[in-house]
């Protein structure tokens, strides 16, 4: 498996892949929340200045992707403020490649990128319903930062904040 920066020609495929990876949550969410999430996943938010889009490539296929947002940049469409450290966003693993270390490899790559850039922390937010992802993040040393949680649509769904010292 190779972790690398995505090429512009791959962006549409990556966005479709993110939606496919997150479709497992569609039935768990209120309809408006699913459509908001789907809009975020298909948007060009990874094109913000300083954001880096990474993919995991396996056997010539895009097995997963993640975006690393720079510090001091608003990473969300909602008013959440900016952080003094980079933030991992939109980690997505193609269902055909799950349980093969793809997500872990992408997270570790983003941690290394943040470390090499001289940061002391890396953060992320994830929906409370994404229990597998939360387990991965906790196994990799991320800790909860509840004061940075938010509820984007006031529909009872909390987006939980995590941070890891690097």
From TrEMBL:
Residues 1-166 form the N-acetyltransferase domain. Gene3D superfamilies: 3.40.630.30. Keywords: Acyltransferase, Transferase. It holds the Pfam family Acetyltransf_1. It comes from the Bacteria. InterPro entries: Acyl_CoA_acyltransferase (IPR016181), Bact_Acetyltransf (IPR050832), GNAT_dom (IPR000182). GO terms for molecular function: acyltransferase activity, transferring groups other than amino-acyl groups. The keyword Acyltransferase applies. Coiled coil: none annotated. The keyword DNA-binding does not apply. This is GNAT family N-acetyltransferase.
């Amino acid at each position: 498996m190779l972790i690398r920066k995505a090429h512009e020609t791959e962006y549409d495929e990556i966005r479709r892949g993110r939606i496919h990876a997150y479709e497992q949550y569609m039935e768990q969410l209120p309809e408006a929340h699913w459509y908001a999430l789907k809009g975020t996943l298909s948007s060009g938010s990874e094109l913000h200045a300083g954001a880096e889009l990474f993919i995991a490539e396996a056997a010539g296929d895009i097995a997963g992707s993640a975006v690393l947002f720079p510090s001091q940049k608003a990473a969300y469409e909602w008013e959440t403020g900016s952080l003094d450290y980079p933030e991992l966003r939109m980690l997505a693993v193609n269902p055909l490649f799950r349980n093969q270390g793809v997500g872990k490899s992408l997270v570790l790559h983003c941690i290394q990128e943040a470390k090499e850039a001289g940061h002391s922390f890396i953060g992320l937010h994830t929906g409370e319903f994404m229990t597998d992802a939360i387990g991965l993040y906790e196994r990799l040393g991320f800790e909860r930062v509840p004061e940075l949680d938010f509820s984007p649509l006031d529909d009872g769904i909390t987006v939980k904040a995590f941070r890891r010292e690097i």
